[in-house]
Amino acid sequence: QSVLTQPPSASGTPGQRVTISCSGSSSNIGSNTVNWYQQLPGTAPKLLIYSNDQRPSGVPDRFSGSKSGTSASLAISGLQSDDEADYYCSTWDDSLRVFGGGTKLTVL
Amino acid sequence: EVQVVQSGAELKKPGTTVKISCSVSGYTFTAYYVHWVQQAPGKGLEWMGLIDPEDGFTRYSEKFQGRVTISADTSTDTAYMELSSLRSEDTAVYFCTPAGFGSNNKYFDLWGRGTLITVSS
């Protein structure tokens, strides 16, 4: 059971905007920045967002992140079939790194 | 080219110890922490611990504390993860991931392809 709570699944149709939430507490999200990762089947995770809302170079601006209090969100606009993957939030909690349980995104 | 190369798959018996490696190139090994992350079949990511290659400082997840040892060799730019008292639940892919902020305030994040450890009698 992770200290960061994500919905196990999410879905959307091509072109739609979807959001994935990540809920924590004052000891983790409330006092640290959040990263988001995308993991395609059979591959290593890829960094999508760091420091709550920053995109690494090469990540499309369709992906955006935000944080408010003890929760964070990842938004994907203009949904594409290639976005079908698992998504994980991550932050620190008492100097230990933690991941959310992951959200499986299905593109209908 | 910046890259992480992890050692090959391992098949181990319950109760034994495994040590896997993570060799990096293309950046300064001591500039970033190296994290190890476990992913059991069909499950999510579980952080195991980290090492600061510059001074050998380590920190471990409570779940693995006492069974995991992370080390680094700066002469070969290689990090290691040793897991003892193996049990079937340790069957998983183990990722090595150097990460952290650089002097330019950009976040550096690199992942190996993972090493599959299978624990079976």
Q: What would you say this structure looks like, in words?
A:
The complex is a heterodimer of chains A (108) and B (121). Chain A has strands at 9-12, 18-23, 35-39, 46-49, 63-68, 71-76, 85-93, 96-99, 103-107. With 108 residues, chain A is an all-beta fold. In chain A, the strands form two sheets. In chain A, strands 1, 3, 4, 7, 8 and 9 form a six-stranded mixed β-sheet that branches. A three-stranded antiparallel β-sheet of chain A has the order 2-6-5, with no helix packed on it. The model of chain A has no long low-confidence stretch (mean pLDDT 97). Chain B is an all-beta fold and 121 residues long. The chains are: A mainly beta (108), B mainly beta (121). At the A-B interface, strand 3, strand 7 and strand 8 of A face strand 5 of B.
Task: Give the uncertain stretches of chain A in residue-range form.
Answer: none
Compute the number of strand runs of chain A. Answer: 9
- The sequence of SSEs of chain B as H and E is EEEEEEEEEEE
Strand content of chain B: over 45%
Largest sheet of chain A: 6 strands, mixed
Give the fraction of residues assigned to helices of chain A. Answer: under 10%
Q: How many beta-strand elements of chain B? A: 11
Secondary-structure-based class of chain B equals mainly beta
For the residues shown, what is the average pLDDT of chain A?
97
**Rg calc of chain B:** 14 Å
The largest interface is: A-B, 24 and 19 residues
Keywords:
heterodimer, A: 108 residues, mainly beta, six-stranded mixed β-sheet, three-stranded antiparallel β-sheet, 9 strands, globular, B: 121 residues, seven-stranded mixed β-sheet, four-stranded antiparallel β-sheet
